[in-house]
Amino acid sequence: MQKxxxxxxxxxxxxxxxxxxxxxxxxxxxxxxxxxxVRAAAAPAPVPAPGPQARPALGPSAFRxxxxxxxxxxxxxxxxxxxxxxxxxxxxxxxxxxxxxFDDGPHPDYTxxxxxxxxxxxxxxxxxxxxxxVVDNRELLARMAEEGHVVGNHTWTHPLLxxxxxxxxxxxxxxxxDIIEDTYGDRPQWFRAPYGAWNRATFQLGAELGMExxxxxxxxxxxxxxxxxxxxxxxxxxxxxxxxxxxHDAGGDRSQTVxxxxxxxxxxxxxxxxxxxxxRRV
Length: 282
Known about the structure:
Layout: H1 2-24, E1 97-103, H2 111-120, E2 126-129, H3 131-134, H4 138-146, E3 150-153, H5 166-184, E4 190-191, H6 200-208, E5 212-213, E6 218-219, H7 228-238, E7 244-248, H8 255-270, E8 274-276
Parallel strand pairs: 1-2, 1-7, 1-8, 2-3, 4-5, 6-7
Helix pairs in contact: 2-8, 5-6, 7-8
């Protein structure tokens, strides 16, 4: 009799928690400051020319995303999205906003230095990670979550997806989403194809797994290791409202990238640019 009563009480408690959870998620919850948004349906516009330089200071972000690993509910199927015909290349929003993105990591020799620089200037960024790199560097994803960065899916082994079948592509995406959720505490909502090689299957499977496709507007060319000065010039000459900047924190010697961001990031901020991240969907 006591066991039956205890079981009944537990069911009532769980029902109450579920009701609270439904009420709490009815409104929009953002990973951003609530102002920037992503172009939802229209085709990407041409990159605007850099505007006149202003000098408002960048305000600190109070956002901190606490990792949920080990404490969240059982994994739920992702919300399927509309299938796009091309990736997102830029963002919309008021003011001189840009998005910084880093591919191929995390890497223990370079990612921590990039995170240190972002933290020093109170800037959030997007990291498109490879699943095989996460395996031995989970603590870096936990730090990204703690410091409010957005983690996206960059496949497990960084293959050229256009040469793979649907089953292989899905495995590359799905395994990576799983380890991101297990480590970062949330399932990725963004996907970037390695080498920027997209096809119909990548768009379809990404949408099925609840991820929007994001490309970039400005390529720092740091993957070519062209020298710190060249990387700085690529960012500063390409800076404009709405652009998405591509850099790398792994996949080669990224010491030039580490040095370059220490130079160009404070300059952009002093010029009035706001470095931001997209909204989080609910």
